[in-house]
From TrEMBL:
Gene3D superfamilies: 3.30.450.380, P-loop containing nucleotide triphosphate hydrolases (3.40.50.300). Residues 178-332 form the AAA+ ATPase domain. GO terms for molecular function: ATP hydrolysis activity. Residues 364-389 are annotated as: Disordered. This is Pilus assembly protein CpaF. InterPro entries: AAA+_ATPase (IPR003593), P-loop_NTPase (IPR027417), T2SS/T4SS_dom (IPR001482), T4SS_GSP_E_ATPase (IPR050921). It comes from the Bacteria. It holds the Pfam family T2SSE. Belongs to the GSP E family.
Length: 389
């Protein structure tokens, strides 16, 4: 029946006929002996296959699912509450999976084929999509969808969920409002963007905020925000607009703060220069295994900017621009938590002082952490009080 519908689609393309009527007609001809409830279910199934997202439709409607991973047409996995599980549904064929990918990419002007076997895109709701085809993907077409949550968490809500202690949440809120520049580090899927959105919610509503992302994920409920998104090259290899170009352009847009969704290239230097030239309180994220690794990687990325600056000058830029690094990680059970918060020591060696570490104890107590100014030295021996661990 699906093949008949696909074959009939070109003939009816200009007729503006309701697709449901065509599906009902085909079902009546091919399965007219079935009971009415079964015929209706079959019509719905065919409409989903023809117009929707097939086996992924119900998964995308499940708000408890954070990520969907299709490993070839026979195998679908999901991440729910930090844990991976395989679902019973699957695609009927490799062709059905490829047709679904075409339906996702076509409205966006994107395309994936043997000549261009890797593609990034996003759904209408903001969910991020990655596609990789054979032979790069040895066992078949791989499709990964990272769900977009329309409602972002606040720092208080993250604290209530156990992602960080309440005093630390208040400390980070105060630091953000006081225009301290923060870098959020962590691995893939560790909750960096979630924390970044929560920190942005603490910025005063009177400030003009410009967000720059490779794929627009941040949804900030504030009156004055400008969202910029990078653009990949087209099929002819033209028209690319990079994160670095957007950072440079943002400086001409009268921003109070700049938020870069993730630094992964030469834009690191432009972001550091922006933080050092009147845009204090800007924020960004970076992939790294620890706060110290984050600083070293940021330094390396800035050196990739094709600007003939000595290593020492780049290091000075990093130390002058940033105040705090907040490191995210996944706990053993899959929960995304704040693992460590450090403050730059500005010693010329990218040194930093640990303000809080999850596996240890707070260097300030709950009461002091809730009221400490963002410039306070949490590591001072006189303030050492257990709690907030």
């Amino acid at each position: 029946m699906r093949e008949r519908l696909l074959a009939a689609a070109p003939a009816n393309a200009g007729a503006h006929e309701d697709p449901r009527l065509e599906v009902e007609r085909v079902v009546a001809e091919e399965a007219g002996t079935l009971p009415a409830p079964l015929r209706e279910a079959l019509v719905h199934r065919l409409l989903v296959l023809a117009q929707g997202l097939g086996p992924l439709e119900l998964l995308l409607a499940d708000e408890s699912i954070d990520e969907i991973m299709v490993n070839g047409y026979r195998e679908i996995w999901v991440e729910r509450e930090g844990r991976l599980e395989r679902v019973a549904s699957a695609f009927s064929s490799d062709r059905e999976l490829r047709n679904l990918i075409e339906r996702i990419l076509a409205p966006l002007g994107r395309r994936v084929d043997e000549a261009h076997p890797i593609c990034d895109a996003r759904l209408a709701d903001g969910s991020r999509v990655n596609v990789i085809l054979p032979p790069l993907s040895v066992d078949g077409v791989c499709l990964t969808i990272r769900r977009f949550r329309p409602r972002r968490f606040t720092l208080a809500e993250l604290a209530a969920k156990g992602a960080l202690p309440a005093p630390l949440a208040e400390y980070l809120a105060t630091a953000t409002r006081s225009r301290r520049s923060l870098l959020v580090s962590g691995g893939t899927g560790s909750g960096k963007t979630t924390l970044l959105g929560a920190l942005c919610a603490e910025i005063d509503a009177s400030e003009r905020l410009i967000t720059i992302e490779d794929a627009a994920e941040l949804r900030l409920e504030r009156p004055h925000v400008v969202r910029l998104e990078a653009r990949p090259p087209n099929l002819e290899g033209k028209g690319e607009v990079t994160i670095r170009q957007l950072v440079r352009n943002a400086l001409r847009m009268r921003p109070d703060r700049i938020v870069v969704g993730e630094v992964r290239g030469g834009e690191a230097l432009d972001m550091l220069q922006a933080m050092n030239t009147g845009h204090e309180g800007s924020l960004s994220t970076i992939h790294a295994n620890s706060p110290q690794d984050a600083l070293r990687r940021l330094e390396t990325l800035a050196l990739m900017a094709d600007v003939d600056l000595p290593h020492g000058a780049i290091r000075a830029q990093v130390e002058s621009a940033l105040d705090l690094v907040v490191h995210m990680q996944r706990a053993v059970g899959g929960a995304r938590v704040v693992a460590e918060v450090v403050e730059l020591a500005r010693d010329g060696q990218l040194g930093c002082r640990t303000l809080w570490r999850r596996e240890g104890r707070a260097l300030d107590g709950p009461d002091a952490a809730a009221t400490a100014s963002p410039g306070a030295d949490w590591g001072s021996p006189s303030a050492r009080v257990e709690g907030a661990a």
